[in-house]
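Researcher: Quick test of sequence recovery. Tokens follow.
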């Protein structure tokens, strides 16, 4: 399952192609991915200009000029391929089987961006900007691990009184957004904390080592794409 660095890598690769571009043609080749596509998906996207492309946890958020945001989750096998348009500098994998091409976005810059998902665990949604904060996928996410509000004090509060292992709590997106199995394991190893150690028994000194361990392993992964 893609974790924060993988999603951030995809976001960076798509930014140069989509941000500032207008979607001149949108094709949905099936009515659903993991969940049904929102009503009027094609019509609501066609003609829209992509103003921003950000990330929240494991989600990408494409802000449109229609006071609407396109939420994208890659799931396990979701990926994008780019044809023509401006170079992105991103190193994408070889072409995927056409039968797994589910969503196609064409822009006024001549780019064609196709979303492939062999197992269809990914999904997309359209959210009115006023409903972003309360959307069920976003409302309860914890802090971003690479931003200032994520610190030892936050983890100390989140771990207090909890019997679950440290790994289990770090995988909880309500505690910290974007982490998954790969990077949690590596960060705990670097901080010398057992993944099964009850969270409440992880001391402040260990938490002070854990926060930079999480940040460094994520930063390294993003730098390496």
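Model:
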């Amino acid at each position: 399952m893609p974790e924060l660095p993988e999603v951030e890598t995809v976001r960076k690769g798509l930014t140069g192609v989509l941000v500032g571009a207008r979607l001149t043609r949108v094709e949905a080749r099936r009515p659903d991915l993991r969940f049904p596509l929102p009503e009027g998906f094609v019509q609501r996207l066609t003609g829209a200009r992509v103003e921003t492309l950000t990330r929240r946890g494991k989600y990408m958020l494409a802000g449109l000029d229609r006071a609407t945001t396109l939420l994208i989750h890659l799931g396990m096998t979701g990926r994008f391929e780019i044809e023509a348009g401006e170079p992105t500098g991103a190193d994408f994998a070889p072409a995927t089987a056409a039968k797994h091409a589910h969503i196609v976005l064409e822009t006024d810059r001549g780019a064609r961006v196709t979303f492939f998902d062999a197992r269809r665990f990914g999904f997309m949604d359209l959210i009115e900007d006023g409903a972003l904060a309360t959307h069920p996928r976003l409302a309860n996410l914890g802090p971003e691990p690479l931003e200032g509000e994520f610190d030892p004090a936050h983890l100390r509060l989140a771990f207090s009184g909890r019997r679950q292992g440290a790994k289990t709590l770090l995988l909880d997106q309500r505690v910290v957004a974007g982490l998954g199995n790969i990077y949690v394991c590596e960060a705990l190893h670097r901080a010398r904390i057992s993944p099964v150690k009850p969270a409440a028994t992880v001391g402040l000194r260990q938490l002070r080592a854990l926060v930079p361990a999480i940040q460094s392993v994520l930063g390294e992964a993003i730098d390496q794409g």
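Strands lie at 23-28, 50-56, 59-64, 68-73, 78-83, 101-107, 112-117, 123-128.
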